[in-house]
Predict the 3D structure of the following.
Amino acid sequence: MKTYKIAAIPGDGIGTEVISAGVDVLHALAARDGNFALEVEDFDWGGDYYKRHGRMMPENGRDLIRNHDAILFGSAGHPDIPDHVTLWGLRLAICQPFDQYANVRPTRVLAGITSPLRKVDRTELDWVIVRENSEGEYAGVGGRVHQGLPLEAATDVSIMTRAGVERIMRFAFRLAQSRPRKLLTVVTKSNAQRHAMVMWDEIAGQIAAEFPDVTWDKMLVDAMTMRMVMKPESIDTVVATNLHADILSDLAAALAGSLGIAPTANLNPERDFPSMFEPIHGSAFDIMGKGIANPIGTFWSAVMMLEHLGEPQAAKRLMTAIERVTADHRFHTPDLGGTARTADVTEAVIAAIQGAND
Ligand code: IPM
Ligand code: MG
């Protein structure tokens, strides 16, 4: 029997609540499936760790998780610590050195959930956003001089490399090709950004030639926000830069009913390093410790993790269980307008896993 070693990093805020729910669900799934086991190791990195040790994770942190099969991550963020410190000290300190360059964010309106779009039918909003996750606006290149003086200056330089753009385009075209509609939208802003985004567009055209069966189009990012709202059915797979996709994926999550549902996979497709799976929502300090966080974003991220590990049956079983539970309004947490608690949703999903005979 295959045993997968999972590194769980709950992080901060509601991260601890949803990851513990996610681990319970994964164990229930392994028990139900019987073909694989999970060995989950917990790492207490994040804001509290920072307060004790002056850093978000130990210096050899990455070595401790390098040989795990996957990472399940909650969120990083602390009210007393600047956001860029928590982000660069933990999440990006894992994503970038582990070369998790493909960030994949599926969006669907799950059973029982209502989209704020008045006219949208559940089947009309089924997207996957591919976010370039290793460079671009998040390259971390820049500097700040003359702090506090009137001539203070600061730069954040977006870096795009041919290798980086080619690999994310190829990944996105391949993903689009694997989906029934074989449809890819390349998001750009080459009308205003005249160097890197122009190269981005050129490379999209070059990679497109390798995928003659994929229909693709190009869309300026501002116009894309409109299209997502006005013509959601015209979209299937989307590829965008690090920052553009960050913004578009929050819009996508909201259009699908709640940020509490949306999952993410940070993939190193070559499998030289472990990939990392996390809900999109962040640490949400306003609801922390209340037991009302929506664990569905973590459960769906666990589905993506199982797919990546090569357990499609278990992944399907979990997704079916999730939708069985979201279909029932009694199990909607406050972000969905309900009164259910994290534990109610978790128990219901576990019961659906145990009962499911598909
Ligand atoms: C996301 C988040 C992060 C990002 C934040 C927490 C820095 O918004 O994963 O989309 O911008 O990458
Ligand atoms: Mg975001």
Observations:
- Residues 108 and 126 are 5 Å apart (CA to CA).
